[in-house]
Amino acid sequence: MKKIEIITRPDKLEDIKEILDSGGQFGMTVSMVSGCGLQKGRKQIYRGAEVTINLLPKIKVELVVKDGMAGPLVEAITQRLRTGEIGDGKIFIYEVLDAVKIRTGEIGESAL
Ligand SMILES: Nc1ncnc2c1ncn2[C@@H]1O[C@H](COP(=O)(O)OP(=O)(O)OP(=O)(O)O)[C@@H](O)[C@H]1O
Ligand SMILES: [Mg+2]
Looking at residues 77-88, what average pLDDT do you find? Predict the structure, then answer.
C-alpha cells in the first residue's frame, strides 16, 4: 500500500475529488494547512524589501491506496493540477506498513 499526500491550492479540492471519485477510491482525509515551498511564500517582493517566510493557505489531501493504483493516480492528479505557475503544489508518496479497519478487524489491503 502507498500513502499519497497532495499539498496544493485550496481551490483545487474539487478537481482532486473528481479524479478520486472516477478512480474508485473512497477513502480520503483533507486538512487545511499552512505552508510554503521554494519561494518561501512570497507572491511578490514589496519595494525590494525581503520579507521573512510567509505561510500560505494550502490543502493537504491524504489517501492510502493499493500499490497498483498509486502510479496512475499520481499521474492523473499531476496532469489535472499543473498550471505551470509557481505554487502548483507537491505530491509525496510513502510506503504504508499496514492498515486496520476497526469495525471488522480486517488488515492490509482488505482494510482499505
Ligand atoms: N520540501 C517540502 N516539505 C514539506 N512540504 C513542502 C515541501 N515543498 C513544498 N511543500 C508544501 O507544498 C506546498 C506547495 O509547494 P510549492 O508548490 O510552492 O513548491 P515549490 O517547491 O515552491 O514549487 P514551485 O516553484 O512550483 O512553487 C507548500 O506550501 C508546502 O506546504
Ligand atoms: Mg512555491
Answer: 96
Q: Do the beta carbons of residue 8 and residue 58 sit within 8 Å?
A: yes
Q: Return the ligand 1 atom nearest residue 7 CA.
A: 12
Q: What percentage of the chain reaches a pLDDT higher than 70?
A: 90
**Distance separating alpha carbons of residues 70 and 78, to the nearest angstrom:** 12
**What's residue 92's pLDDT?**
98
For ligand 2, the distance from its centroid to the CA atom of residue 92, given in whole angstroms, is 15
Residue-range domains of the chain with CATH: 2-41+54-111 (3.30.70.120)
> 96 vs 21, which has greater pLDDT?
96
Are the C-beta atoms of residues 89 and 12 closer than 8 Å to each other?
Answer: yes
